[in-house]
Amino acid sequence: MLDHFRELNEDPACSGRLAVLLGVTDIDSLPDSSQLGAVGTAVIAIRKKVQFGSCAIVADRDALFGMMRVFEVKAGDYLEAIRVFRRIAEAEIWLSPKTASRNPRP
Q: For the chain, which end, N or C, has fewer CB atoms within 10 Å of the first or last residue's CB respectively?
């Protein structure tokens, strides 16, 4: 995740307002809380360049889902809305403009 936020920050075409769908189903090991805090710091750094609207995170395994819920709390102050899902279809529905405006936080 850190690499992704760094790439966004360095991309000259990346600007404006973003809605993010972050799939973490391929992660092999669980992040620890210090790594999650570092992602929060990366979000703060990129906020100088872009504004984050909604962020949907897809995590299908129980332990990873729990860790992403921790991240949801840590990053919640820096995003308009953030929510963790187990299935990509649910995340995509939530990210749709109509749904996101009605349901910003779980």
A: C
Show the tokens assigned to 23: 């799939």
Q: Rounded to the nearest 10 degrees, how much is the dihedral formed by the CA atoms of 93, 12, 24, 52?
A: -50
Could you read off the pLDDT tens digit of each residue along the chain, which spans 106 residues?
677 777 888 888 888 888 889 888 888 887 777 777 777 777 777 877 888 788 999 999 999 999 889 888 878 887 889 999 999 999 999 999 755 454 555 5
Residue 29: count other Cβ atoms within 10 Å of its Cβ: 7
Of the chain, the end-to-end C-alpha distance in Å amounts to 22
- For the beta sheet containing 16-23, the strands, ordered from the edge strand earlier in sequence to the opposite edge, are 16-23, 50-58, 81-85
Type of residue at 45: A
**Distance between CA atoms of residues 67 and 47, nearest Å:** 23
Are 57 and 71 in contact by the 8 Å Cβ rule? The answer is yes
